[in-house]
Amino acid sequence: MSRPRPEPVQVVKQRRDAALKALVEGVPYIQYLGIAFDRHGDELTATLRFDEKLIGNPLLPAIHGGVTAAFLEVTAIIELSWSILWDEIESGRIDAEKLDPTTLPRMPRTIGFTVDYLRSGLPRDAYARARVNRSGRRYASVHVEAWQDNRDRLMAQATGHFLMPTPDG
Amino acid sequence: MADRKAALARQFIEAIPHSRALGMMLSEIGDGVAEISMPYDARFVGDPKTGVIHGGAVSALMDTCGGAAVMSHPNAPAGTATIDLRIDYMRSATPGQTIRARATCYHITRSVAFVRAVAMDDDEDRPVASATGSFTVEQAPGAKV
After folding, report:
1. Contacts of B67 in chain A (CB under 8 A)
2. C-alpha span between B60 and A126 (Å, rounded)
3. pLDDT in tens, A119-155
């Protein structure tokens, strides 16, 4: 029995990082809010870098509830797009090196999004991870959690339903 | 009193750094109703292929407008924070058009305020999104409850 040699580590990393970069850097609003994504294997963690323009209550001060909602929604959409893209690039159907915002598959569209605010957002970095609970041909359901100092003390959580992109756009 | 409340709410909303960053403009406030518009801005685009504004920016607009409606309510609190917010997106906002949100605080208790909101672009007969939310009611220190 012989099996093909595994790909060199840098080839795997380069392909996956290129795909993630194309996905995230193509969206102006993600850049505007200052959200970055770290990848470990297929797991993504979003970081919202704190900035004064994210403040909603200057007296406390606290991060704007709308920023928290946007951060969660961005994380959910990227996670869902990433899960679709992952199979495409790993199978070789899409060449990750040639991906750019104009050649990327269409993004899923939000149908409904529900945010629970659990703690006020402190003026410092926040993190979020999303989990695709169901991904069908037409619809997907995604849960997402955000925290700041302590992973077990959530700042907010949300569930969203999304309309999946069709191959013809 | 109602006028003073509206003026205070207006002052507070216009001082929010993130609302200013998104270019939000308060067009109406008072008696538990608020209307805020957000001009189109290429920096807030969520889908580069279509130029449609990101849902997150619409959420931020709805959240601000909901909070403003709560603060302008006659029984209203000194301050407020969002407890939960649900948004339904009916269609994509038309690229290039201002998005306008209108929120109503339709019920308020000593501890919770309930809000409905709708977002429109130039085609007012077909809303872009609708929202429902609940907000905290923070009493001013020493207030009789």
Report:
1. 65
2. 17
3. 999 999 999 999 999 999 999 999 999 999 999 999 9
